[in-house]
Structure formats: structure tokens, C-alpha cells
Amino acid sequence: MRTKQLRAEPVVFHTFNAVVMILLAVVTLYPFLNTLAVSFNAGNDTIRGGIYLWPRVWTNQNYTAVFAGGAIYHAFWISVARTVIATVLSLFLTSMLAYTVSRKEYVFRKPITVIIVLTMYFNAGLIPSYFLIKDLHLLNSFYVYIIPGLISAFNMIVIRTYIQTLPEGLIESAKIDGAGDFRTFISIILPLCQPVLATVALFVAVGQWNSWFDTFLYASSKQDLSTLQYEMMKLLSSSMFSNSNAAVSNSGSAMNAVQNMVTPVSIRAAITIVSALPILVVYPFMQKYFVHGMQLGSVKE
């Protein structure tokens, strides 16, 4: 009797575990699937509610409205360029700084670390930041997307903590072989830091891709520097404004136009899918590095 009970316990546990994981997956995926369904549903029908996992009235008008203007294609490549360039430069410079402050023989590592950490708690504010960008002649310049975010205090701490977990003998052996600090960093540290670098790369890339407020502040007067997120924000704002005007001037003779109307809810869903799709494509390839990097870089032994 005791043996049968012990054999039944793994079955009960695995069944319970499978049910919980399925429920968790449904809860996690539902918001995205619901947004996808709304993005393919007719705008006037979406107002009625009741859209869950499947569109009730299929249409691609929401995506047609998103891609109607030619500016969005140029803005897409600006977002890609700023994301790729900023991610690569930020990874290289932040990891170089992290390696520097991780060396025990470096005299100023503690003061520099304190100064960097203080930037996480104190911020000058929006107006001083704007005047700083202006004095650096970065207004209406592509470099305004790159230079201000090259070094991140949080990312530096994550990379530094990971580097401190690496065997010290590797660095010492490289120095015995005649390698300098830069050669050691390039040949030894960077290859060993792939997991944490992939984690930080995901942080930086997502932040750069989703950023639109810096475009609004520093480059809104130059259309050639407009990013995808900023164009999406303008499209959503214009959709809400047009929809409110249409509600005021609506009449019985305009019923056909109302049936094909793109509503703010439907256009927001389409914008969300278009904006999130590139990140969703890249993330599965970096997921194993993301989990591994966070585990090793977050705890110092």
C-alpha cells in the first residue's frame, strides 16, 4: 500500500505542475493574443467589446492605416539604425568600464564606482538635460540617439559583477604571456562574457527600440530623424483626434464611412503588434543567454 502511494505521488505532482504551467502560459499569452485579434478586427465592431482570442469581423484596414504613410518606412530604418549602433557601442564601452572598475589593482575603482552609482539615484531633471544636449550641439542630430545613453550604471554593475565571478587565473595567465589590459579584455573577458552581454544587449535594444520621447524632445523638427515609435505615437494621436471629430459630425448619410472607420482602440492594437514584432523575432534567439546571464551576473560568490 505504501509503495502504491509513493508511485502515485509523481503522477499527481506532474499533473498538477502541467495544469499550473498551462494556466500560466494562457494568462501570459492572452494579452498578446487579444491584442492581435483586436488588430485584425473591424474598428466599429471592436467598440462593441467581446473580442477575446479571435476577430469577429476580419479586416486589414488597421494595418493599412498604419502603413498608409511613406514616412513610417524611413522611420523604421532610423529605429533599426539607432538600436543596432547604440547597442553595439553601449555594450563595448560599458563592458570596458565594468572590466576597469572590477580590477582590484586599480586605485580609483571605488570612487569611480560610487560616482557612477550616484547617477542612479540623482537626476538633474528634464530642463537641465535639454540644455546640456543643446550645448553639446546634439539637437536635430542622429547622435542624440546614441551618445547620451552610451553608459548605463545598472548595466555596468551587472557586467562588473559577472566579471568578478570569472577565474582570476585566466587574467593572470594572460598577463604572464605578455598581454596588456586591452588585449586581455578583448581576447579573454569579452568571449567569456557572452551570456551577460546578451542580457545587457536585450535591455539596451528594447530601450532603444521603444524610445520615442527623445525624438519628441530633441529631433521632432527634423522629419528625417523621426523614429518608428514616434511615428506610431503621432498616428495614434491623429486617430484619436479624427475619431472624436467624426463622432461630432456623424450623420445617417455617413453610415458607410462609419462602418469602415478605424478607431483608436483598433489602431492602438495594430501599432502594438507592429512595434513589438521585431523584438519578438529576436528574443527567442537570445533567451538562453538572457536567463544564464541574469543568474550568473546577479550574484557574487
Automatic annotation (TrEMBL):
Transmembrane stretches, start-end: 12-33, 76-99, 111-131, 143-163, 184-206, 265-286
Name the record gives this protein: Putative aldouronate transport system permease protein
Family per record: Belongs to the binding-protein-dependent transport system permease family.
Cross-referenced InterPro entries: MetI-like, MetI-like_sf
Pfam family, one: BPD_transp_1
Subcellular location: Cell membrane
Example GO biological process: transmembrane transport
